[in-house]
Input
Amino acid sequence: MIEKGSKVKVHYTGKLEDNNVFDTSVNKEPLEFTVGEGMLIPGFENGVLGMKTGDKKTIELSVGEAYGERRDDLINEIPKNNLPENVEVGQMLQAETEQGPITVVVTDINEETAKIDANHPLAGRKLFFDLEIVEVA
Output
């Protein structure tokens, strides 16, 4: 039975409320992690607790158990010349911060400035995961 400290291999399919799949491990290697290390979103780790090898279930994660609410303070306007040449709206870039590199999305570009969004693409969304426990150690 899975508890904190268990090493787990799990196949998953992540879906949005409209049933669109945003990520899956099916036809790939299963996701391997140690429960309680905080390497995954909290709701995913908590969702496998109590399961055992072979178990399958679907979990629903609230916004707070997933990537949190979208935050306006993570959207910034910067000088356009701070961006690489030929950058386009929708493009993902790496930005350096005091805490290390982060991924941002370019959401708007005009003559002088550009808007970049450092929110996780799934922030503000309720998520659903179909889980299948492959192995528990």
About this structure: The mean pLDDT is 95. The longest helix spans residues 42-48. The chain has one helix and nine strands. Residues 2 and 48 are 7 Å apart (CA to CA).
